[in-house]
Please model this.
Amino acid sequence: MLGGASRYYHRKDKKMAKKKADLIEEAKALGLEVSEKMTIAEINEAIKGAKAAEIAEEIVEAVETAEVLEEVVEEIAEEKFAKSGKRSKKHAEEVAEKEAKEARKAAGDTTPLDGSEAVVKKGPKPITRPRIERRGKKYQEAAKKVEKDTVYNLNEALKLATETNPAKFDASVEIHARLGVDPRQADQNIRSTVILPNGTGKDVKVAVFAPENEHKTAKDAGANIVGDEEFLKQLDKEELNFDVLIATPAYMPKLGKYARLLGPRGLMPNPKAGTVAADVAKAVSEAKAGKVEYRVDKQAIVHLSIGKVSFGAEKLEENAKAFFDSLASQKPSSIKGAYVKSVSIATSQGPSIKTENPIA
Model:
């Protein structure tokens, strides 16, 4: 048994000695100083360190070579593009691309640059008809009576409006006045009321929100709906069966919670519109008699219905003059230039009629 173990260790020592001799030769080839006294592990570490140093040197040399080549290329490019002034390579490419694009456009070449097939539009080019031809026959007949380039005086325009109503019903006659104001400025945001002498031709339903002691007075004046707490219950159900809402100053705070319901519909009482009043009877009488509110929109235009076609030109002219007098009184002091730029009159579905500006 002992003889066998001795032979095993003897073979192992021979292998280790041979491996150590090979490592020493490799180390000497790399220029390392090693001796027989050093262990195999130490010789291995020395060889690895030498090889790592060689690899690092090779990498450094490669980087330096690449940097030198890059500098040479940049110098050549700068020489090429600096001869005609301070033009960069990018600028030259953009100019060339733009010129190529212009050339393709002039030649009518619409082929995609990405290599895909060009989309060919099928059928003839659609023909857009004039706007007048897209209207109904009755409108076209009515429009023939209006000369586009003629500016009519107020009386002529109103007569023409009553004659050019294409609708079968009793249409409203409207005034559209374009103002030279800036609605974003607080002092130029035109808003007011006017009492039309001949009314609007509409049956105005008036609601009154006031204390109980005002109810009888409001009803006698012609109010259609009168109430206090009962009226608020109607608002809770969003029952808005009225055209004008009048409230006393003391009751206005109670309507605050309904601002989102009434405001967008133009029903929220407002002191400027005369719908917040201590004298309820007077406010109801004015609303029933034809008191209307007008205000400038975002495009600086005032739109107002001044009556029906059945009124005739004379009554419509009286209402129109009342409106223009009220509009003239609202002229802001800060405005520069023309206050009223243009005026046109039309029925609900009829053609527009250019009208002389009655406000100097």
The longest strand covers residues 172-179. The CA atoms of residues 274 and 340 lie 25 Å apart.
